[in-house]
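Translate sequence into C-alpha cells.
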Amino acid sequence: MVVCVSERIRSAGSGVDADAEIARSFQRGDEGSFAQVYQRWASLVFGLAKKAVGPFEAEDVTQQVFVAAWQSKDRFDPEYSALGAWLVGITRHKVADSLRRGPSSREMSVDPTSLSEELSDNALNTGMAPERIDVLLTLAQELERIGDPQRHILVLSFVHDMTMAQIAEHLSMPLGTVKSHHARTLRRLRAEMEVKDAH
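Result follows.
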C-alpha cells in the first residue's frame, strides 16, 4: 500500500504537466485537443452543473460550457490561469444563465415520485440554494489551482459526494492519509478565500 501511495503522489507532478500541455494545445486549437479537454474535465463540469441546476439541465449546461470554451479559446491564457479553473468560470456563467431562465424552461420528470420531489417548494429541485451554488463553484475554481492528490480528493468529496472511506478505496490510499489531505486542503482553501474576500 505504501508503494502504491508513493507512486500516486509522484505521478501528481506529471499529471499537472499533462494538464498544462493539454491547456497549451487547446489554446492553440490543435487537432484532438477538444476531445482531450472534454475527457479530462467533463466529469467536473457535469458534477458541478448537476448540483447547481439538477440532472435534467446539467447535460445541456455541460455542452454549452465546452462549446463556449472552444469558441473563446483564443482568450484563454495558459500562463495566467489553469484550464480547469477557467472552465469552472464558464460553468459559473452558464449555471447563472440556466437559473435565470427559471423552472419553466427545464425538462420535468414524468415519474410521479420524482415529480413530487421536484415540485416541492414550488420549484424544480436544482440541488442547492443560489448562495451555496456560488460557494461550490468558487471552491471548484480554487481546487483546479491545487495539485493532486489534494485536488482529486476534494473533487470526489464535494462534487461527487463520496465519503472519506469511499475516496480512500477509490484512490487506494490509507483512510488517514485521505483525511489528512482533506483537512489540510480545506484549511488552505479557507485561508485563500478569506484573503480574496478581504480585497
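Note: The radius of gyration is 18 Å.
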